[in-house]
Fold:
Amino acid sequence: MFLLRSIGSYIMTGLLKNTFGHTLVTLTLLFVFFGPGRAYKSNLTWTTTNSSICASSTTGAQGPVMATASFGTSSKPKVLIIGNKFEFTYLSGLNFTTSYTGPLLTSLYACTETGEICKLECGQELVSAQQITALALVPGIDLTATYVIITGTGGVNPKYGTAGGVAISQYSIQLEWLSMFLGSDLPANFSSQYMYAYAQASPFEYPSLVGSEVYELNTALFDRIAAISTDLEFEDVDSDLQRLRQTYLFEAARKAPFLAHCDVVSSQIYWHGDVAGHNVEVYANIVTSGAAKPCNTNQDDQGRLLGLAGAAEAGLLDFSRVAMVKAFSNFDRPPPQLSAYQSRYYVGEAATGPGLRNAWSVIRGIVADVLEHWEDVYEDGISAPNYVGDAKGTLGGTPPFVQNSTAVTGSVQGA
Structure:
């Protein structure tokens, strides 16, 4: 295995030298260890300065055991941060001391000593919907006045952001209810558009919806986060990735990490490349009637929003208090001189560390602002000037991005 990896690294070093103009030794020699759907530096040490989360993964040691609250103990946080276990290892500055248990709650829900800030370590996509639902139903846990911050990491559309940057989002779009043709099965008149909304007769018709395809969040909360994050200084990516980003054709991609205002597309498939990226953009623009700027790829958020929206429908939380702060771990398509395969597996998710640390700096600012201005800004809620909810108006109101549509006879929606 080591020999194969070494040979692969040698070959790719040559390829990248010819295409990029200099040898990306750091990238090609270190990004040879692949986790599920990810490529990481083999010498990476996942260490957190917060000892209550976990110790360095290189030692295998566990941090101090948290206290476990008795079943039914009250918890009414001002802020709940939702991410996965890996992403929380990059968090510093918050010390979670007490965990809570409940029926069906299989993920870690823990709070700081004051109980004002809590976290939920979620799984991905559909799993997270179940975990959030289980949390909302735990006796004693009250999320009705809680601000929920969904965080994590994913790829970035170079038209809107750069690797290592962060996005705050108004829309989250589900990339699941689709019909698809691949390879030689692609109809001649489809050009590069190989997927389209399920139950529609053509790729460019507005789809018949089930409801979870789009969630729209509170733009006033979005604007508050943007305002308090204006003066943040973001960590830059390493020098190899800095050189690589300069070869992209889009101005946003060539910038140092910054806070982008663009939207999430969530799928259980982690796509990569120009063709896939184009297809995603077309679908996102259709389903939001051109309102979205799709920039963040991930495998988490639609499941999380589904769980939160379900809890809101049951009166267990306020969906207008939900925000998304997502990190950019990589570009979702290659620069001109690389293939999609080279970009995905030999550059990989090289900006994961800087991106997550930058996202956490935004989140720490939000937490500080909530605690400082709880009574005068946050306690009674921040009124949304826009529609907030799913694509069916489940929580009230009419989603402005939805158009009239009819489904093909015989499909689930058209039956």
